[in-house]
Structure to design on (224 residues):
């Protein structure tokens, strides 16, 4: 899983709560990404950031928010507006020169109780 | 949006056999990559093939790309139990740092 850490590994949330998933990288990468993975499906892009203090919505941004205050960190908040948040969440990073080669963290499995 | 589709969805082979999986995509691409995911883990980048390349090798992996058919294949030769994983193709349509992943092929290598 390279130099990317995600925490926690498992997270349980009650309906109506916001939760924040952590993603930290020490690879000196400019770009960072958040994906959602559901059973039997590929990865869907939630948000991505190419540089500090800048980020863009991906394909399924509704009900999620992010911040990029530091190069190393890209936390994802799953808000109560996300109707079906139970999923496996993966964070990734890449250099701007080789953006195709993304390095992934170990993932966080979020379950809504 | 997912533009890559892998085929088959699942594959079971005996150790030592070759495993072949395919990826089809819908629109023109800059590059295509293959990633591996062990159960419950993050993805690992395996190989990238550019749109002007037709074949690429890396160890026991062989990737082909046919842009006229909008398809790619990944061949794993002499498979091992450790190759048991899901394999995903990912394409990028433009230089905006975004990748589109397919739903993956789950490969099981039986000892």
């Amino acid at each position: 899983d390279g130099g990317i850490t995600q925490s926690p590994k498992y997270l349980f949330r009650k309906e109506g709560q916001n939760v924040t998933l952590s993603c930290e990288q020490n690879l000196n990468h400019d770009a960072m990404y958040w994906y959602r993975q559901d059973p039997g499906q590929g990865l869907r892009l939630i948000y991505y950031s190419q540089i500090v203090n800048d980020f863009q919505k991906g394909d399924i941004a509704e009900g999620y928010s992010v911040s990029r205050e530091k190069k190393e960190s890209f936390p994802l908040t799953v808000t109560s507006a996300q109707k079906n948040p139970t999923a496996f969440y993966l964070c990734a990073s890449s250099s701007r020169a080789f953006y195709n080669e993304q390095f992934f963290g170990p993932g966080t499995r979020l379950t809504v109780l | 949006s997912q533009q890559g589709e892998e085929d088959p969805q699942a594959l079971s082979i005996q150790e030592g056999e070759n495993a072949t999986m395919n990826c089809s995509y819908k629109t023109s691409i800059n590059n295509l990559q293959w990633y591996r995911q062990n159960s419950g883990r993050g993805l690992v980048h395996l190989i990238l093939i550019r749109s002007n390349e037709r074949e690429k090798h890396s160890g026991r992996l062989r990737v082909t790309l046919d842009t006229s058919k909008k398809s790619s294949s990944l061949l794993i030769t002499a498979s091992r139990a450790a190759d048991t994983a899901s394999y995903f193709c990912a394409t990028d349509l433009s230089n905006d740092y975004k990748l589109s992943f397919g739903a993956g092929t789950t490969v099981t290598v039986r000892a």
In short: Chain B has no helices and eleven strands. The interface with chain A takes residues 1-2, 4, 31, 33, 40-45, 48, 88, 90, 92, 95, 97-99, 101-104 of chain B (CB under 8 Å).
